[in-house]
Design goal:
Blueprint (H helix, E strand, L loop, with lengths): L5 H8 L5 H20 L12 E3 L5 E3 L3
């Protein structure tokens, strides 16, 4: 994913994130987890390093 991990994004930004950014990340993660749940997949290592972002800063769950 061209945007890297959410972990790297958060540590490189060096600024306080806006509430709207935080909510968008939370919604993206929730949608990904819902998709996995509906497909009977358990993600046992949910953390910011396993959340990859596309070029538009949309998070996607990465199954490690």
């Amino acid at each position: 994913m061209p945007g890297g991990s959410l972990y790297n994004y958060l540590h490189k930004s060096k600024r306080a994130l806006k509430l709207s950014e935080l909510l968008n990340f939370a919604i993206d993660v929730s949608k990904g987890m819902e998709y996995l749940h509906h497909n009977d997949i358990i993600h046992r290592d949910l953390k910011s390093a396993n959340l990859l972002m596309d070029s538009l800063q949309v998070c996607a769950n990465y199954l490690s």
